[in-house]
Specification:
The chain contains four helices and seven strands; from the N terminus they run αααβββββββα. It has a seven-stranded antiparallel beta sheet, covered by helices on one side.
Length: 162
């Protein structure tokens, strides 16, 4: 729950700042000074309620899995064809599984068998934001995710594959 609050506040601040720049250019600083904090706050609140909604949690649950088989899980975006597809990433004893919610354009599931993972890398989104996790498969395919605690994700996956 703490992560969702922190991320929502951060997203609200970033949105408010960027929207403030736009409003300053378009309408002037006085207008932006009032509208930016209000819009950033509203964006953060809406994002928090979306991320913690029962609908999203239900849509991103994986079926037919014993709770003991889940080693690590968390909210994630799978970068697919230029879209950050929102959902949840699961590390199980035998596979890495991503399941998106239906509010995406490219809703999907992705399963990577643990034996097919060759390497796990971390990277910075846009060269700045330290939330990227890249999975390289034995077939040479690259799957990229945006996650919280990317170092912990890498360590947990590395424990299983090595």
């Amino acid at each position: 729950m703490k992560t969702e609050i922190k991320n929502s506040i951060l997203a609200g601040i970033v949105f408010g700042f960027l929207f403030g720049i736009f409003l300053t250019i378009r309408y002037g600083f006085q207008y932006a000074l009032i509208a930016s904090p209000i819009s950033g706050f509203a964006f953060g609140i809406i994002l928090y309620f979306f991320v913690t909604s029962k609908t999203v949690k239900k849509q991103t649950q994986i079926a037919n899995v014993d709770e003991g088989a889940i080693i690590f899980s968390g909210g994630a975006n799978h970068l697919k064809n230029g879209e950050g597809v929102g959902g949840k990433l699961y590390l199980l004893t035998d596979k890495l599984q991503f399941k998106s919610h239906s509010f995406n354009i490219q809703s999907h599931e992705l399963v990577i068998d643990i034996g097919k993972i060759k390497e796990v890398r971390t990277y910075n989104i846009l060269g700045l934001i330290p939330t990227g996790l890249e999975i390289i498969t034995t077939e040479g395919q690259s799957e990229k995710f945006v996650v919280n605690n990317r170092r912990q994700w890498k360590d947990e996956i590395d424990k299983i594959i090595f």
